[in-house]
C-alpha cells in the first residue's frame, strides 16, 4: 500500500500489536464458564461468543452483550464492585482480575507489528493506540512499545471523555482529532469485528482488518477495505 496517501496510523492493541487478545480470550472464557455453571445458563459459553459479542468491546459492554445473548439480566452495580457474578460490573471485574494474573507472565509484541512500526517511524508517520482496554498502558509498557506512540486512547480515556466504545467510531475519531489529522487521512488497523465496524463507520481513509482469528470474511463483512494476516504485508520489500 502507498503510505504516502495517509498522515496517521491508528492501531488497536490486543491482537494487532500484541498477542494479548489470547489473554483476554482466556480470561473471558474462565469468567463466563464459571458464571454460566453457577447460574445454570445455557448454552455454554464458547469461542464463537467471544468473536460475536466480546472481541473489541469495552469490558462492561461485553458482559452486557453476552448476557443479552442468553436473555439474562443482571443489576448494573458499580465499577467498585469486587470480582464476582452478582452484577454486570462484578463480572467485568472478575474478568479483569484474570487478565492481570495472566499479564504477570509477560508480554511480547508481534514481530510483524514491530517491523511495521519500524517502517512507519522511519517515515515519521504519527501512530496512536486506540483500545477499549483499561490495561492498555500496562500492556504497552510490558511489551516495550510505549515510546512508539504519540497518543494512547484507552478505556480510561474513553470513560473520562464519555466516548462510546467500539463498534461506535468515537474513540478513533477522538484520536484523529488529537493528532490533528483528518479522518480520511488516517489508517485504522483492527483485528476485531467491532473495531473494523468502528473504523468503517468513521469515514477513515483505510480500514485494515488484521486476521488473527476473527476470519477474513467476517472482517470484510464488517467493513474492512483490506484484510491481511501479517502487518508486514502492508509494507514493501
CATH architecture of the largest domain: 3-Layer(aba) Sandwich
Over the alpha carbons, how many angstroms does the gyration radius reach?
17 Å
Helical residues, percent: 40-55%
Number of β-strand runs: 6
Shape designation:
globular
Strand content: 5-15%
Total discrete domains: 2
The topology string of helices and strands comes to EHHHHHEHEHHEHEHE
- Which superfamily, in CATH terms, is the homologous superfamily of the largest domain? HAD superfamily/HAD-like
Structural class estimated from helices and strands = alpha/beta
Question: Whole-Å distance between the termini?
Answer: 12 Å
- Counting H and I runs of at least 4 residues, what is the number of helices? 10
Sheet of most strands: 6 strands, parallel
Instruction: Give unreliable regions as ranges.
Output: none
> Averaged pLDDT, please?
94
CATH top level label of the largest domain: Alpha Beta
CATH fold annotation of the largest domain: Rossmann fold
Amino acid at each position: 500500500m502507498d503510505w504516502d496517501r495517509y498522515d496517521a496510523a491508528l492501531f488497536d492493541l490486543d491482537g494487532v500489536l500484541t498477542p494479548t487478545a489470547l489473554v483476554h480470550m482466556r480470561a473471558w472464557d474462565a469468567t463466563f464458564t464459571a458464571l454460566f455453571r453457577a447460574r445454570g445458563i445455557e448454552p455454554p459459553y464458547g469461542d464463537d461468543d467471544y468473536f460475536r459479542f466480546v472481541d473489541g468491546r469495552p469490558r462492561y459492554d461485553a458482559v452486557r452483550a453476552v448476557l443479552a445473548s442468553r436473555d439474562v439480566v443482571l443489576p448494573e452495580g458499580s465499577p467498585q464492585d469486587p470480582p464476582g457474578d452478582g452484577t454486570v460490573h462484578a463480572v467485568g471485574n472478575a474478568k479483569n482480575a484474570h487478565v492481570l494474573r495472566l499479564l504477570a507472565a509477560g508480554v511480547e509484541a508481534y514481530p510483524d507489528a514491530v517491523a511495521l512500526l519500524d517502517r512507519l517511524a522511519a517515515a515519521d508517520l504519527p501512530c496512536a493506540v486506540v483500545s477499549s482496554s483499561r490495561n492498555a498502558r500496562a500492556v504497552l509498557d510490558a511489551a516495550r512499545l510505549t515510546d512508539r506512540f504519540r497518543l494512547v486512547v484507552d478505556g480510561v480515556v474513553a470513560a473520562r471523555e464519555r466516548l462510546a466504545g467500539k463498534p461506535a467510531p468515537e474513540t478513533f475519531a477522538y484520536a484523529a482529532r488529537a493528532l490533528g489529522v483528518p479522518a480520511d487521512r488516517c489508517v485504522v488497523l483492527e483485528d476485531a469485528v467491532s473495531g473494523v465496524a468502528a473504523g468503517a463507520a468513521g469515514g477513515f481513509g483505510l480500514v485494515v482488518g488484521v486476521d488473527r482469528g476473527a476470519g477474513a470474511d467476517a472482517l470484510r463483512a464488517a467493513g474492512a477495505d483490506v484484510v491481511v494476516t501479517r502487518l508486514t504485508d502492508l509494507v514493501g520489500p
